[in-house]
Amino acid sequence: MSRRQPYEFAAPAPDAPIYWMDRPELDQQLQGTEPAEITDETATYSAEFPGGVAEFTDPVSRRGFLSLMGASIALGTLAGCRRPVDNILPYTRMPEGMNIGTATWYASVYERRGDALGLLVESHEGRPTKVEGNPGHAGSLGSTDLLTQASVLDLYDPDRSKNPTEGGQERSYTQFDEAYRALLEAQVATRGAGLRFLVRPSISPTFHRLKALLAQRLPEARVHTWSAGTTANTHLGSRLAFGMALNALPRYERARVIVSLDADFLQTEPGAVRSTRRYAEGRRVGEGRDPSRLYVVEPHLSLTGANADHRLRLPASAVEAYLRALASRRVAHHTLELGPVAEAVRNAAPPAGVSERWINVVAEELSRHRGNGVLVAGSRQPVGVHALVHALNAALGNHAAIDYFPAADQDLGDEAQDLRDLCRALEGGQVQALVILGGNPVYDAPADLQVAARIRQARVSVHLSMHRDETGAVCTWHAPACHYLEAWGDAQALDGTVSVQQPLIAPLFYSRSELELLAVAAGASTNRGHDLVRETASRSEPQGPAFERRWLRALNTGVLAPSLGPAPAPSLRAGDIAAHLRRPVPAAVTDSNLEVTFALDAKMYDGRHAANAWMLELPDPLTRISWDNCAYVSEATAHRLGVDNGDQLRLSKGERMLTAPVWIMPGQADNSVALFLGWGRATAGRVGTGRGFDVGPLRASDALWFTDGVRVEREGSRYRFSQTQENHRMEGRPVAIEATLAEYREHPNLAERLSPTPRTLPLWRQAAYPGNKWGMAIDLNACTGCGTCVVACQAENNIPVVGKEYVARGREMHWLRVDRYFVSPRPRGTDADPEATSDPRVAFQPLACVHCENAPCENVCPVAATVHSTEGINEMAYNRCIGTRYCANNCPYKVRRFNYLNYHNDGVYQPGHADTPETVRMQMNPNVTVRFRGVMEKCTYCIQRIQTHKIAAKREGRVHAVEGFAHDGQPGVAVELRDGELKTACQQACPADAVVFGDLNDHDSRVARVSREDRRYKLLGEVGTQPRTTYLARIRNPNPEMLG
Amino acid sequence: MSDGPITSIGEKHLVRPGATFREITDSISVVTETSAPRGWWIAFLTAATFLGILGAAVGWLFWKGVGVWGNNSPVGWAWDITNFVWWVGIGHAGTLISAVLFLFRQKWRTSINRFAEAMTIFAVICALLFPGIHVGRVWHAYYMFPLPNSMSLWPNFKSPLLWDIFAVGTYFTVSLLFWYVGLIPDLATLRDRCTTAAQGVRRYVYGLFALGWRGSNRHWSNYERAYMILAALSTPLVLSVHSVVSFDFATSVEPGWHTTIFPPYFVAGAVFSGFAMVMSLILVARVVYKLNDLVTMTHIELMNKIMLATGSLVGYAYAMEFFIAWYSGNPYERYVFVNRALGPYSWAYWTMISCNVISPQFFWFKRFRTNIPFSFVLSIFINIGMWFERFVIIVTSLHRDFVPASWGYFHPTAVDIATFMGSLGLFFTLFLLFIRWVPMIAIAELKGVLPQADPHHGEHHGKHDKHDKRDAPTEGGEPAPAATEGA
Fold this sequence. Notes:
The structure holds two protein chains of two kinds. Chain A is an alpha/beta fold. Chain A has six domains: 1-57, no CATH class; 104-155, N-terminal domain of TfIIb (Single Sheet), CATH 2.20.25; 165-229 and 415-557, Rossmann fold; 246-406, Dimethylsulfoxide Reductase, domain 2 (3-Layer(aba) Sandwich); 592-723, Barwin-like endoglucanases (Beta Barrel), CATH 2.40.40; 738-1036, Alpha-Beta Plaits. In chain A, the strands form 13 sheets. In chain A, strands 5-4-16-15-14-6-7 form a seven-stranded mixed β-sheet, sandwiched between helices. In chain A, strand 1 (104-112) and strand 2 (115-124) form a beta hairpin. By secondary structure, chain B is mainly α. Chain B is 64% helix and 0% strand. Chain B has 17 helices and no strands. The chains are: A alpha/beta, B mainly alpha. The interface between A and B is large, with 58 and 52 residues.
């Protein structure tokens, strides 16, 4: 190739036209040139341009004009058929630090059942799109849980209330503010005697500061606390045991043996994210250390029970009897220092049907691991169980494995009693004004309190909530509340870490936060959220440059004040515990005395997420039912009641009654029916209204969590569930491979042997991946099956929600699913054994596209729409896909998802052919294509994240050249990523750290190291697909003495 | 009239003894020349109604997306591809009868070949409909064709679906040509029978399609050669089309699909279903148009024998699939076959076995082979059975494959049913139009199997033994009967 020659303008031809801009220029040019003979107009142009370049100089003819106009009109008409034009306008004043097209991240915090989860929230051009855990925050350690991942969609719920209402009539916020202030002013004279607040338990220091201010200003006003998911028993239990409310945070990573008494610490209990991370850490094998061993005693199969090495199904009311028996046995055999408590539990008999082994072996195990054991009680167990657990932990010296932190709210008492007091006051007509800050008591309060009728007895009632829900409908005033991403706030985690809740977006609608309304009542100096939170933060330190720095650092790192560390081992009040334990244990549950238990739902929580389409669509981790809850019964009980899956059941106790469809759940205690809160909302917007059934009508304030003496009978009609997984057995196939610790020690690579890769020689030269070679490893041993990764994937990749009807038709779009299998617990047992349905072992397996190197999908696509990248990613070219679905048919893993309909536009939000609501579209990740109907899609390994990090690495020069790319033999580049820099959405969200992603060519990367582990196997390796995502077999740690 | 040995199998007459050229021409041509009987109108309006249903179903499909069908994950293909393979299979008999039997000098084919070829073409049209409409983005379906484009992007030549396009497309083209070439002399006959001024349009149209056929010796000689070449071209296609269709499944990794037996098994099944469809149709036409003289018991019996043979081949393939699944030791493969017979789709499997394997066994007995109502009922059974065969292969393999958690079940929707019924409507609409306007039996060919067509028979038997007497119409310089008949 010759070097390019510099280009020179040819000298203008004498008769070349002259171009000019204005008359003086023309004159100037004409003077500079030869006095050309200007014969006509066309020649009067400048000589700036070379010959041959000429303006269109033909005069416009009449004919030309008409044809041009005709064409314009025709095109103009055509343009009228097009979609309306959307304009993208630039910022006139660019916000600092913003780079259009580049995501920015802000630290914030989210309250989850009394714990604070530090977050980093991704924002695109001012729209929060995705939340991630804040690695610097002890409550999240960089990961999140289901509800946190889904919380961003709540922000964009199109059915949020947008204006205050008074008696159902729309009002402006100014009108509301005036009315609210007037209502408070009227109370000043009586020092607030007629004023009541109903709030949810709060972990916000500002909230408690304002509450104290309120008590100063209006000492007679009372603040009542209620939440359906109350943790009062936990608080009261620790107060009974230690004299003060303490948060016990077990260090599951240290514990050798964990005994959970109806505590679902991996999902619904407070601090589940932290617990999951620690638990998964303690279950790691291969580092010269055995994994911990988990015993679970519980009525219904919870996520924690599903992960247990040994699980005992007992009615919830029998758990206390079991614990007393356990304590008594240890007192008898191991001379534990229980003091007066020992007297109280002496000779306690275990519940009927519990084998001696479950008492003796567990007692033995706890004694063997003194100091390294953890007993943990579930928040719905009565106070006595908590106190006895604290006593046993203390006696066993387990304080080394449990951290105790003072609870943020020492005043929190029995919430049911608190609400009962409020109702009584309302009934007595003592309440002139009731202010409900957050919460939905009409829906979630115990049925016997008849809260709706009581609220109507207040002269004026105010309800602040994101939705005009059941409570909003009965209150005089309803005011829209801010989402947590719209409002300032703060939160104290279980361990005392204080974080600032930093908003990412101005309120979408006219709304106020709970703090702001409380501040008005408390007469605070300001009622701006930001100032309120700052003021709380500056209590310990004067305003000034030092504070300013601390404040900015808190906004940046997400932590305002780190934890002060665990409290010293608290002293036990054994006498109080013993006195409490003299109370008799509840009556035994029998065939004729059925028990009903209530549990918080993993997806709906207490009902506040009922309008969240992601949560509704996500299959329950254990039943795999989406869009519904169900009543769990055991197989034996179902048989006795003569019901099958989907039969409606009528449950009644006294006046209270409800109808619920049955699900025969493996692992359910006999004679116990498990019901889940949060479903069956009457007003939860277009998506959530009427989904599932409300269990509230059966819940009473004196038996919040379980009650016996319930009449259960078959109702007669049937109900149709939608499940994303309809087969629950592994069919003896090596799919989710697991082994006991003993088996693993004997055959470390047994997983690879069960799922071998064929040894036949390839027929052609295999593709080389000399650059980056992306791969993933999923540790089934760490995975608890919670499903957070599925929602994270949905949020990251704009995955549409299809609705219950289409889930039933097998059209769900989740790129990533967590398969769940029930397996017989016996060694070498098959899944057809009866134990597989009564006392199953549960296996989980997250499964997305495994990015086969020999991908069966690729060669069957007739249009080459799915192809392999040079980095080994199986890519989808949506624009090329015509939707033959052949690739999905030929996928052995069945992970490809097809847009059978235009679910984005024709989905759950807008039946018919309307667009997705504007707000819901705001959640979309701009870096991921929104797929149209007729297109196949699947996991991309979050290729948008890969690209982002590759670009960043290239910009920083972290690249090196490599040769030998298979497709053209040309040298290419590989980027050098710092390990952990690039995380897929599922990996980042996983609280158990079960997903590892990275560059397999980087020998030292974590994914490469994990892939060399002996537990590793390739799913369906014998098909020869050479998947890039590989699995690490799960190792169970059963106690041989239990198998006996 | 001599009872000459013009039959090629046995000693049966292929046409009623004593039939003359004129009788044959008249009896076949008159169907297109007189007004249609009431029965035709009833059948046509029914078929057209179903064609309308097809239009509505496909319109709705295009408007909403593939989701109006019951397909799901894991069952990405269901009735759509079942219908496609079923129709392609039906399209097999035509070319087999026309080309293969022609090359083997099976003269008995002449009474049914036109019929069968028409059926082939219409069946392939129905078949081609489905790959076209089953894709998610129909407006981009042309991506499957190797059209030059600015992105230098070609279809994926490794994909069996692409092979399908070429195989079925080729088959359709050759079948159409073959049918049309065979039609030319007969179209000329119809043209020449238009003698009155009132028949001007008719004469013009038939004349246009007759391509100026005058029945000259030169015409006949070219015609015979062309026909022979097309027959030779079509013959491998009979084997290749359904082999290629079977590659859609055989080259995949899915247990139940990934089977080397598929190509011959599919071809046998295709011939089986094709003959069954020809039988169903011709038995009706025979009654309605009183063609007993032309479509004799000999034909029916011979076709029943072929169905017996291919039905047994298919039965053998079913058995062999089970054997190999067991013998291979592959647990996934084993499961799929056990699941077919005993799983949630066992009703479909046993419908298939009863219709395809058990029912043809009656044809071992001459009494059943020659019983017309029985043959008709059985042919319908076989049509049903062969539809279920494709359904069983496609749906039962997909619905439970490797990973048990992804298993599912397929329920058809009303649109699925409407699309299938509509494709029957399309087929019968085309077929009834064919019966109405085109000679449904090859007039010229049929004359060739009459004794009169071979006037030297008996006198010069010894001398002409090397000469193929069965090419009678052109032999001995005798004027070709077709073109001169009506002139």
